């Protein structure tokens, strides 16, 4: 019996060590209040072209969930605020929701989380009494479907429920919410789930009346005379982002909970704003996002929890021009809907840059209808303005002489010329975005690193936000082999 207990401890330690070595990831939120929203398949093309492997949806959009199937991209699906009350009052409604929006898609679609509502306590406080009951009902439905170990349930909350986040060591949740938050933390603890935090240094800075320097909000180094230090712990905070995460850890600890990891479900910086929003600029957005990615990918936590990496989701994929509110509210996107970036991005811990046309190609889809390809080819070379001289007889890209190859060249030439001004890679559903350079030794596609048009290209094996738990797929497979081996050893010895 002692042997079995010891072996179980060893196995748990092995799992913990493997999980710890897999590292952090950076994902992205996908909002859909966009007037020219691309098709679900094109959205997935953009994600894959930029090695984005973790996404959060604000609902359970059937088109996106289907398009994400067989991609291995990890998906958090959302229960909308409008759905929380009904689910919280009816376990059968929760079971129906799980069957329709989770069971129907897994395992093809890699759903790993459910975000119940969005900032419920600060936006729809009247629903707070049923928030945790809704989470419990959803979890029980997952248990019934044998998915509770695969899919975790949590609820994103804003920093607004922590009235005084600085200094972090004295931060506490708004006491009027203590009962609900205690229930929430107990649920997260019982189900091994993470606390979901929406952390926005942009608002912390702009609403701070000059208390903190903008460098602190943008992850930029501070001179020694401006160092931000918690007077109680003497921890130095190099960014407001870290201080916000730590304030949340201390608030959780104040209610006598620990070992509940925090995942940042939203953070970002608007690239454009109104006359009264001078800090919403493309330069600041580029600095914030790229510095945040580099900070998250170093796999460390905030000063009070240095060994717990801060997995983070960028707000957001596209500018949502249909959203209400100030100008900045419509300009948080990191990509335009044609797949080009709003500003250069460096995904992952490397110096890989994703520019507006860097290493991204538009080619014909495999299996596309030949007649549609011919129509797309004719349009691109005619009205579209692509230079199709290279695919004429005797020219470098004429062979192989088939409509798919010629369409790929024409589509790409059009896309490289026009995407910065709104041109898309669609062509009636016959085109797709790829980072694999379709060039050959004799036929060079525009946008290739070998092309006269120049431009940086992403290496085929470029690192980006990684797979489950933030690791590359190779690391995950390798680790999984070791885990399986450990389980096998444990089971073999347990029967002795």
TrEMBL record:
Reactions the enzyme catalyzes: Hydrolysis of (1->3)-beta-D-glucosidic linkages in (1->3)-beta-D-glucans
Signal peptide interval: 1-23
Entry EC number(s): 3.2.1.39
GO MF annotations in UniProt: glucan endo-1,3-beta-D-glucosidase activity
Enzyme's top EC category: hydrolase
GO annotation terms (biological process): carbohydrate metabolic process; defense response
SUPFAM superfamilies with a match to the protein in the record: (Trans)glycosidases
Organism encoding this protein: Glycine soja
GO cellular component labels: plasma membrane; plasmodesma; side of membrane
Domain X8: residue ranges: 360-445
Annotated PROSITE patterns: GLYCOSYL_HYDROL_F17
Protein name, per record: glucan endo-1,3-beta-D-glucosidase
Primary location: membrane
TM spans (from-to): none
Sections of the chain in a coiled coil: none
Subcellular location: Cell membrane
Xref: SMART domains: X8
Family recorded in the similarity comment: Belongs to the glycosyl hydrolase 17 family.
């Amino acid at each position: 019996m002692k042997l079995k207990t010891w072996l179980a401890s060893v196995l748990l330690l092995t799992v913990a060590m493997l999980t710890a070595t897999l590292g952090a990831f950076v994902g992205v939120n996908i909002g859909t209040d966009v007037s020219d929203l691309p098709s679900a398949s094109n959205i997935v093309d953009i994600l894959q072209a930029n090695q984005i492997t973790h996404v959060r949806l604000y609902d359970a959009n059937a088109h996106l969930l289907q398009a994400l199937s067989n991609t291995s991209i990890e998906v958090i699906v959302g229960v909308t605020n409008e759905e929380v009350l009904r689910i919280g009052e009816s376990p059968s409604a929760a079971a129906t929701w799980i069957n329709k929006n989770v069971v129907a898609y897994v395992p093809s679609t890699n759903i790993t989380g459910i975000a119940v509502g969005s900032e419920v306590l600060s936006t729809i406080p009247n629903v707070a009494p049923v928030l945790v009951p809704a989470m419990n009902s959803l979890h029980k439905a997952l248990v019934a479907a044998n998915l509770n170990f695969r899919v975790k349930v949590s609820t994103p909350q804003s920093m607004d429920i922590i009235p005084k986040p600085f200094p972090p060591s004295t931060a506490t949740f708004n006491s009027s919410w203590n009962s609900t938050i205690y229930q929430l933390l107990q649920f997260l603890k019982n189900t091994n789930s993470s606390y979901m935090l929406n952390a926005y240094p942009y608002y912390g800075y702009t609403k701070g009346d000059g208390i903190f320097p903008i460098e602190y909000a943008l992850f930029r180094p501070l001179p020694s005379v401006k160092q931000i230090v918690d007077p109680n712990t003497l921890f130095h905070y190099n960014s407001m982002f870290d201080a916000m995460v730590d304030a949340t850890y201390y608030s959780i600890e104040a209610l006598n909970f620990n070992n509940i990891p925090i995942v940042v479900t939203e953070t970002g910086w608007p690239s454009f704003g109104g006359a009264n929003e001078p800090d919403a600029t493309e330069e600041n957005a580029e600095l914030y996002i790229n510095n945040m990615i580099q900070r998250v990918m170093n796999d460390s936590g905030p000063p009070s929890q240095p060994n717990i990496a801060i997995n983070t989701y960028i707000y957001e994929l596209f500018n949502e021009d249909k959203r209400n509110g100030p100008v900045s509210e419509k300009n948080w996107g990191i990509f335009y809907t044609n797949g080009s970036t709003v500003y250069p991005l460096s995904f992952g811990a490397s110096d890989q840059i994703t520019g507006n046309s860097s290493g991204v190609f538009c080619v014909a889809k495999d299996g596309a209808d030949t007649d549609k390809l011919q129509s797309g080819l004719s349009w691109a070379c005619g009205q579209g303005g692509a230079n199709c001289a290279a695919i004429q007889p005797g020219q470098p890209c004429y062979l192989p002489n088939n409509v798919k190859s010629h369409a790929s060249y024409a589509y790409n030439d059009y896309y490289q010329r026009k995407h910065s001004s709104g041109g898309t890679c669609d062509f009636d559903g016959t085109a797709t975005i790829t980072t694999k350079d379709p060039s050959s030794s004799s036929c060079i596609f525009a946008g290739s690193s070998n092309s006269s048009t120049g431009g940086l290209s992403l290496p085929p094996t470029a690192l980006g936000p990684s797979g489950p738990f933030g690791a590359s797929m190779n690391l995950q497979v390798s680790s999984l082999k070791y885990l399986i081996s450990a389980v096998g050893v444990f089971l073999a010895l347990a029967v002795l």
